[in-house]
Fold this sequence. Notes:
Mean pLDDT: 85
Low-confidence stretches: none
Strand content: under 5%
Structural class: mainly alpha
Largest sheet: none
Amino acid sequence: MNKTTxxxxxxxxxxxxxxxxxxxxxxxVYSVQSQKLGTAPxxxxxxxxxxxxxxxxxxxITLIIVYLSVIA
Length: 72
């Protein structure tokens, strides 16, 4: 198993584990570095899944903070 495949698997796992932000950022950094060298479809998929994972983590946290600030 090469590093690209491993990063792709990590990006998918980051979608399903609570607070997978660290994995998502790690795979995002790897995919950006890999895109500079060449554009493989697996690297593009890793990039997209990492961004989706980060959005799915940040948006609910932001909504909770806004909701709590309105209540207070």
